[in-house]
Amino acid sequence: MSNSYRIEKIYDLLLVRKKVSVNELAEMFHVTPTTIRRDLIAMEEKGLAGRMRGFAVAISDTAREAGVNLFVEEKRRIAEAAKKYVKNGMSLVLDAGTTVETFAETLVEDGAIDDLDIVTNSLAIGLKTGRHFRVAMPGGIVLSNSACLVGMDVESFFSNIHVDVAFLGTTGIEGSDGLTVSYPLHLTVKKQMVACARKRIALLDSSKFSFTGIFTFCNFSDLDVMITVKTDSNEKDLEEIASRGVELVLV
Fold it and tell me: Which residue, 138, 141, 183, 178, is CA-closest to 161?
Protein backbone atom coordinates (compact mmCIF):
# COMPACT_ATOMS: atom_id res chain seq x y z
CA MET A 1 0.00 0.00 0.00
CA SER A 2 1.52 3.35 -1.05
CA ASN A 3 1.83 6.32 1.26
CA SER A 4 -0.16 8.38 -1.29
CA TYR A 5 -3.11 6.05 -0.79
CA ARG A 6 -2.82 6.27 3.00
CA ILE A 7 -2.55 10.06 2.91
CA GLU A 8 -5.68 10.26 0.77
CA LYS A 9 -7.65 8.04 3.14
CA ILE A 10 -6.36 9.76 6.29
CA TYR A 11 -7.38 13.12 4.85
CA ASP A 12 -10.88 11.84 4.01
CA LEU A 13 -11.22 10.39 7.52
CA LEU A 14 -10.19 13.68 9.15
CA LEU A 15 -12.85 15.54 7.19
CA VAL A 16 -15.39 13.49 9.14
CA ARG A 17 -13.79 12.75 12.52
CA LYS A 18 -11.41 15.72 12.95
CA LYS A 19 -9.08 13.74 15.26
CA VAL A 20 -7.76 10.15 14.99
CA SER A 21 -5.05 8.42 17.01
CA VAL A 22 -1.81 7.26 15.41
CA ASN A 23 -2.31 3.76 16.82
CA GLU A 24 -5.78 3.48 15.30
CA LEU A 25 -4.46 4.57 11.91
CA ALA A 26 -1.61 2.06 12.15
CA GLU A 27 -4.08 -0.76 12.81
CA MET A 28 -6.39 0.45 10.05
CA PHE A 29 -3.65 0.41 7.39
CA HIS A 30 -1.67 -2.55 8.80
CA VAL A 31 1.53 -0.53 9.20
CA THR A 32 3.62 0.59 12.14
CA PRO A 33 2.94 3.80 14.11
CA THR A 34 6.30 5.07 12.84
CA THR A 35 5.06 4.78 9.26
CA ILE A 36 1.91 6.71 10.14
CA ARG A 37 3.97 9.43 11.82
CA ARG A 38 5.99 9.82 8.62
CA ASP A 39 2.74 10.13 6.65
CA LEU A 40 1.49 12.78 9.06
CA ILE A 41 4.72 14.76 8.79
CA ALA A 42 4.30 14.77 4.99
CA MET A 43 0.66 15.82 5.35
CA GLU A 44 1.55 18.58 7.79
CA GLU A 45 4.21 19.96 5.43
CA LYS A 46 1.60 20.19 2.66
CA GLY A 47 -1.11 21.63 4.89
CA LEU A 48 -3.30 18.52 4.74
CA ALA A 49 -3.36 17.73 8.47
CA GLY A 50 -2.02 18.78 11.82
CA ARG A 51 -0.35 16.71 14.54
CA MET A 52 -0.91 16.49 18.26
CA ARG A 53 0.87 14.07 20.54
CA GLY A 54 -0.32 10.64 19.40
CA PHE A 55 -3.01 12.01 17.08
CA ALA A 56 -3.68 13.26 13.58
CA VAL A 57 -5.99 16.29 13.54
CA ALA A 58 -7.86 18.13 10.82
CA ILE A 59 -6.29 21.42 9.84
CA SER A 60 -8.03 24.43 11.33
CA ASP A 61 -10.23 26.92 9.56
CA THR A 62 -7.38 29.41 9.87
CA ALA A 63 -5.28 27.44 7.37
CA ARG A 64 -6.90 29.15 4.38
CA GLU A 65 -6.42 32.53 6.05
CA ALA A 66 -2.74 31.75 6.51
CA GLY A 67 -2.48 30.93 2.81
CA VAL A 68 -3.99 34.29 1.92
CA ASN A 69 -1.18 36.01 3.79
CA LEU A 70 1.68 34.11 2.12
CA PHE A 71 3.45 35.43 -1.01
CA VAL A 72 1.14 38.45 -1.04
CA GLU A 73 3.28 40.55 -3.39
CA GLU A 74 3.70 37.69 -5.86
CA LYS A 75 -0.03 37.01 -5.89
CA ARG A 76 -0.82 40.65 -6.58
CA ARG A 77 1.61 40.74 -9.53
CA ILE A 78 0.18 37.49 -10.88
CA ALA A 79 -3.35 38.85 -10.52
CA GLU A 80 -2.52 42.06 -12.38
CA ALA A 81 -1.01 40.06 -15.25
CA ALA A 82 -4.03 37.74 -15.38
CA LYS A 83 -6.39 40.69 -15.70
CA LYS A 84 -5.04 41.31 -19.20
CA TYR A 85 -6.81 38.14 -20.35
CA VAL A 86 -10.23 39.45 -19.29
CA LYS A 87 -12.57 41.65 -21.30
CA ASN A 88 -16.09 42.85 -20.65
CA GLY A 89 -18.73 40.36 -21.75
CA MET A 90 -16.63 37.29 -20.98
CA SER A 91 -17.58 34.26 -18.88
CA LEU A 92 -15.04 32.96 -16.37
CA VAL A 93 -14.53 30.03 -14.04
CA LEU A 94 -12.62 31.05 -10.93
CA ASP A 95 -11.14 28.10 -9.07
CA ALA A 96 -10.95 28.05 -5.28
CA GLY A 97 -7.57 29.12 -3.92
CA THR A 98 -5.85 32.15 -2.51
CA THR A 99 -4.04 33.24 -5.69
CA VAL A 100 -7.24 33.09 -7.74
CA GLU A 101 -9.00 34.87 -4.88
CA THR A 102 -6.46 37.69 -5.15
CA PHE A 103 -7.19 37.82 -8.88
CA ALA A 104 -10.91 38.13 -8.13
CA GLU A 105 -10.16 41.10 -5.89
CA THR A 106 -8.31 42.88 -8.72
CA LEU A 107 -11.29 42.37 -11.03
CA VAL A 108 -13.54 44.04 -8.47
CA GLU A 109 -11.09 46.92 -8.02
CA ASP A 110 -10.78 47.56 -11.78
CA GLY A 111 -13.49 50.05 -12.67
CA ALA A 112 -13.12 49.37 -16.39
CA ILE A 113 -14.31 45.77 -16.00
CA ASP A 114 -17.98 45.67 -15.05
CA ASP A 115 -19.66 43.10 -17.30
CA LEU A 116 -18.66 39.53 -16.44
CA ASP A 117 -20.31 36.18 -15.81
CA ILE A 118 -18.37 34.40 -13.07
CA VAL A 119 -18.79 30.78 -12.02
CA THR A 120 -17.00 29.59 -8.89
CA ASN A 121 -17.11 27.02 -6.12
CA SER A 122 -15.26 29.36 -3.75
CA LEU A 123 -17.36 30.95 -1.03
CA ALA A 124 -14.81 33.74 -0.58
CA ILE A 125 -14.72 34.57 -4.29
CA GLY A 126 -18.51 34.40 -4.56
CA LEU A 127 -18.91 36.91 -1.73
CA LYS A 128 -16.24 39.26 -3.08
CA THR A 129 -17.52 39.34 -6.65
CA GLY A 130 -21.27 38.96 -6.16
CA ARG A 131 -22.01 42.66 -5.79
CA HIS A 132 -20.12 43.61 -8.92
CA PHE A 133 -20.69 40.85 -11.49
CA ARG A 134 -23.19 38.13 -12.37
CA VAL A 135 -22.07 35.19 -10.23
CA ALA A 136 -23.26 31.57 -10.30
CA MET A 137 -22.38 29.01 -7.64
CA PRO A 138 -23.34 25.36 -7.20
CA GLY A 139 -24.82 23.71 -4.16
CA GLY A 140 -22.64 21.18 -2.40
CA ILE A 141 -20.61 20.24 0.65
CA VAL A 142 -18.64 23.04 2.28
CA LEU A 143 -14.99 22.30 3.06
CA SER A 144 -14.24 24.77 5.82
CA ASN A 145 -10.46 24.56 5.51
CA SER A 146 -10.56 25.85 1.93
CA ALA A 147 -13.92 27.69 2.03
CA CYS A 148 -15.18 25.95 -1.08
CA LEU A 149 -17.93 23.64 -2.29
CA VAL A 150 -17.36 20.05 -3.43
CA GLY A 151 -19.40 16.92 -4.06
CA MET A 152 -21.55 15.33 -6.75
CA ASP A 153 -23.80 18.38 -7.14
CA VAL A 154 -20.77 20.58 -7.80
CA GLU A 155 -19.34 18.12 -10.32
CA SER A 156 -22.68 17.94 -12.16
CA PHE A 157 -22.96 21.73 -12.14
CA PHE A 158 -19.59 22.28 -13.82
CA SER A 159 -20.18 19.47 -16.32
CA ASN A 160 -23.11 21.44 -17.75
CA ILE A 161 -21.53 24.84 -18.32
CA HIS A 162 -19.25 26.37 -20.95
CA VAL A 163 -17.10 29.43 -20.34
CA ASP A 164 -14.47 31.49 -22.12
CA VAL A 165 -11.65 31.13 -19.59
CA ALA A 166 -10.92 29.08 -16.47
CA PHE A 167 -8.44 30.55 -14.01
CA LEU A 168 -6.97 27.64 -12.07
CA GLY A 169 -4.99 27.18 -8.88
CA THR A 170 -2.98 24.13 -7.83
CA THR A 171 -1.41 22.40 -4.85
CA GLY A 172 1.86 22.30 -6.78
CA ILE A 173 3.66 21.02 -9.84
CA GLU A 174 7.03 19.72 -8.60
CA GLY A 175 8.06 16.66 -10.63
CA SER A 176 4.63 16.34 -12.22
CA ASP A 177 3.22 16.47 -15.75
CA GLY A 178 0.63 19.09 -14.92
CA LEU A 179 -1.39 20.84 -12.25
CA THR A 180 -2.00 18.68 -9.19
CA VAL A 181 -4.25 18.56 -6.16
CA SER A 182 -4.02 16.57 -2.93
CA TYR A 183 -7.65 16.50 -1.87
CA PRO A 184 -9.68 13.73 -3.55
CA LEU A 185 -12.88 15.73 -3.17
CA HIS A 186 -11.38 18.52 -5.29
CA LEU A 187 -10.14 16.30 -8.10
CA THR A 188 -13.27 15.74 -10.19
CA VAL A 189 -14.48 19.30 -9.67
CA LYS A 190 -11.21 20.70 -10.99
CA LYS A 191 -11.27 18.32 -13.95
CA GLN A 192 -14.73 19.59 -14.85
CA MET A 193 -13.49 23.18 -14.60
CA VAL A 194 -10.74 22.34 -17.08
CA ALA A 195 -13.16 20.62 -19.45
CA CYS A 196 -15.75 23.42 -19.49
CA ALA A 197 -13.38 26.23 -20.56
CA ARG A 198 -12.19 27.22 -24.00
CA LYS A 199 -8.99 28.68 -22.50
CA ARG A 200 -7.20 27.53 -19.34
CA ILE A 201 -4.89 29.78 -17.35
CA ALA A 202 -2.97 28.65 -14.25
CA LEU A 203 -2.05 31.16 -11.55
CA LEU A 204 0.90 29.96 -9.44
CA ASP A 205 3.07 31.68 -6.87
CA SER A 206 6.67 30.47 -6.69
CA SER A 207 6.04 28.11 -3.76
CA LYS A 208 4.05 25.78 -6.03
CA PHE A 209 7.29 24.59 -7.64
CA SER A 210 8.29 23.02 -4.31
CA PHE A 211 5.17 20.92 -3.76
CA THR A 212 3.10 18.40 -5.64
CA GLY A 213 -0.29 16.89 -5.00
CA ILE A 214 -1.35 13.28 -5.30
CA PHE A 215 -3.58 13.72 -8.35
CA THR A 216 -3.08 15.49 -11.69
CA PHE A 217 -6.20 17.33 -12.83
CA CYS A 218 -4.79 19.23 -15.82
CA ASN A 219 -1.87 18.07 -17.95
CA PHE A 220 0.46 20.75 -19.27
CA SER A 221 -0.63 19.74 -22.78
CA ASP A 222 -4.15 20.91 -21.87
CA LEU A 223 -2.99 24.20 -20.34
CA ASP A 224 -2.85 27.38 -22.42
CA VAL A 225 -1.17 29.92 -20.14
CA MET A 226 0.76 29.85 -16.87
CA ILE A 227 1.29 33.08 -14.95
CA THR A 228 3.95 32.73 -12.28
CA VAL A 229 7.21 34.05 -10.85
CA LYS A 230 10.65 33.01 -12.10
CA THR A 231 13.23 32.15 -9.45
CA ASP A 232 16.70 30.60 -9.51
CA SER A 233 15.26 27.27 -8.40
CA ASN A 234 12.43 26.92 -10.93
CA GLU A 235 14.20 27.97 -14.14
CA LYS A 236 14.56 24.40 -15.46
CA ASP A 237 10.95 23.62 -14.59
CA LEU A 238 9.79 26.65 -16.56
CA GLU A 239 11.84 25.61 -19.59
CA GLU A 240 10.25 22.16 -19.48
CA ILE A 241 6.74 23.62 -19.19
CA ALA A 242 7.36 25.99 -22.09
CA SER A 243 8.51 23.04 -24.21
CA ARG A 244 5.03 21.54 -23.72
CA GLY A 245 3.50 24.49 -25.58
CA VAL A 246 2.35 26.45 -22.53
CA GLU A 247 2.55 30.24 -22.84
CA LEU A 248 4.54 31.50 -19.84
CA VAL A 249 3.90 34.92 -18.35
CA LEU A 250 6.57 35.72 -15.75
CA VAL A 251 5.97 38.58 -13.34
Answer: 138
